[in-house]
Amino acid sequence: MQNLSVRYRVTRFSIAAVLAFGARLGAQTPPSFASPLLPPSHWAVDAARRASALGLAPRAFAWGDGSLTQALVGWTLHEALTPVATAESSRRSSLHEQFRAEWERFAREFPAVAARLVDSSDSPVRPAGLRSIATSVTAGFVAARGQLLPVRSIDRTRENVLPPERVADLNDGDLEVRASGLGGRYLAGEVAAGRSDAEWLAQDWHVLGAVRSLGVWAGRRAPDFGPGEGGGLVFNGRAAFTGGGFELVNPIRLPSLFRLLGPVRAEAFLSRIDSSAAVRHPWVFGSHASIAPHPRLLLGATQA
After folding, report:
1. 3-state secondary structure (DSSP) of residue 141
2. 44, 136, 178, 288: which sits with the fewest CB atoms below 10 Å from its CB?
3. DSSP string covering 211-258, please?
4. How far, in Å, CA of 175 to CA of 140, rounded?
């Protein structure tokens, strides 16, 4: 009797999940307006990718690799609430409250984006509090032990080099002020400045224009493509490049039989850096592309 009871509950839950998934297939349309790109270390990026790992993100989100916009991340967090609400009470009590809190936090941090994603009645931000510009402030204290600088060239040749030098210990405060805004339906931008590594500087900024799923940006960003297996350049979200590029702000599905490849993500950028060994001001081109033929399978490639 106990086994039959457990089997009945599992079957009932499976049917409810299938019906909910089938009902949501037609409604899972990614946002079609331009919004700024989120920094790789932003909490909302981690939350959206966690929803994908739990199988709660829309299929169109894919795995959320590469660069993500505010609109795509907010849409994913909001859509993740629906499958959690259809689950059993034990899951709903834990996951639903967590994703609800994360969605409300996103809506308060980016009220203009949240208002475009859902009706104002469903958003925790009242219409009177909507703003086209969103700001955030992050402060902290950093204590780092100095290491060794690598061997450096004196005159950009391989013959005259400086030996390794020790870097002084760092004990300093960090401050970041970030502001982003929407310029209508097809334009958005963001700028961040503050104090980092004991220096005051403009950390990153960009302007993005998007039509449907295609976006073009210019500015200074730190792309997060992951480490390279064979050495060379590493795009881990910490090194900023000044330049421009394009990307699919929303994953796309190819026509005909190519739809079997699943959601397709792609982006590329072109930049010019200070130096690389004996080459002064070389051009750097980086690109990343991925497909997700199954919700649990991701195939990606990074080139630089």
Report:
1. strand
2. 136
3. ETTEEEEEEEE--EEE--TTSS--EESSS-EEEEEEEESS-B--SGGG
4. 7
The tokens describing 97, both together, are 């409250």
Sequence letter at residue 27: A
Amino acid at the residue 38 = L
Single pTM value for the model: 0.78
Helices (H), 30-69: 43-53
For 131, list phi and psi in degrees, rounded to 5: -135, 145
List own/partner pairs for 256-264 with CB under 8 A and 24 or more apart: 260/293, 261/291, 261/293, 262/62, 262/291, 262/292, 262/293, 262/294, 263/59, 263/60, 263/61, 263/62, 263/291, 263/292, 264/289, 264/290, 264/291
d(CA 297, CA 302): 17
**CB of 129 within 8 A of CB of 111?**
yes
CA geometry: angle 238, 302, 51, nearest 5 deg: 70
What are the structure tokens assigned to 94, written together? 């834990």
Q: Per this entry, what is the length of the chain?
A: 304
Strand partners, 216: 209, 246
From the list 233, 263, 188, 183, the residue with the least C-alpha distance to 38 is 188
